[in-house]
């Protein structure tokens, strides 16, 4: 319904103008004498047709055409109304209805005011003996203008205003109907937004509850792990150096994980109160930590380092961290890992390749190897403007991440390249 009304609102006036013109031509075909231009109502009909057609698209031009027609007849530049075609004037009120339908408040007020003036001019043109001599109202009885206007002027003027008011009422009703539909749509949109906000609130409350529970569990478990690892070292001074280093790594990792968990769970949404996020310079510490955990990591870079945003650096760090953790989890100790950062392209490309243990390759499906960490890596890369792929490649499991350089960096690079050319 609304779609049909919108089409009618845009094309209704031109279509009505065409119908208006055709019906008048059919009705007056016998009086035209075979020539449209010889008919006295030809020019008024053409002008009024254009006034109707333009009432939606260019309302002020439509009103100007009606005014030009009436003033032209008033100054005898256009033939006055005759008994057979005075009703062409009604096209002005049809144009008024379309104008009130589609226009703003200011244009509506101007259109109503001008059509009151048009009705007064039509009354003069129809009743005065100098013009129409009473056409459409009564036969010419030979009254003077003063008698005619005193007896019939207000009646004809009121009738024309009544017709104009009917057309205006139709236009306003259509406008109110469309406005009501728009309000209904806005209300429906607001209700959907309110429902979504309510759902988000419930989800957030549930997340907060889970976060509190998770924090309590992790804090207890990680604290116990750290305390037990430190306790074993202190109570057994004669342990081999490799065992002592492993216990130190366990305690250090547990404490670090506890701090990370507290930051993510309690302060993840308040970066001002949280400790600084990891950056690219922290990769070496991460690699060293994973080496202490048992991975044999070959770490290298190619190309010249470029500046990345803080968010991009965090994304790269977490992607590398997840990749190395998966390599240790699925490959075990002594797994060979190659980590390479390629700075030579339009963005940083990170390659992580780890050997697949034979038992792991035979028994573990690819989906289990990927685990839940890959969606997180993909999301981080996507937010940083890049992408991540992961999967087995022969005897290795490869993770490739691409993060584009910031636009400012790229524009500086392009400028430098053009200068060199």
TrEMBL record:
Q: Which reaction does it catalyse?
A: ATP + protein L-histidine = ADP + protein N-phospho-L-histidine
Q: Which residues form the Signal transduction histidine kinase subgroup 3 dimerisation and phosphoacceptor domain?
A: 206-266
GO CC list: membrane
Under InterPro entries, the record lists: HATPase_C_sf, HATPase_dom, Sensor_HK_TwoCompSys, Sig_transdc_His_kin_sub3_dim/P
- Give TM segment ranges: 12-30, 42-71, 83-102, 109-132, 152-178
Q: Which GO terms describe its molecular function?
A: ATP binding; phosphorelay sensor kinase activity; protein dimerization activity
Report the residue ranges that make up the Histidine kinase/HSP90-like ATPase domain in this protein: 312-405
The UniProt record lists the EC number as 2.7.13.3
Which is an annotated Pfam family here? Answer: HATPase_c
* Top EC category: transferase
**Keywords, ordered alphabetically:** ATP-binding, Kinase, Membrane, Nucleotide-binding, Phosphoprotein, Transferase, Transmembrane, Transmembrane helix, Two-component regulatory system
Identification of the protein by name = histidine kinase
Species of origin: Arthrobacter pigmenti
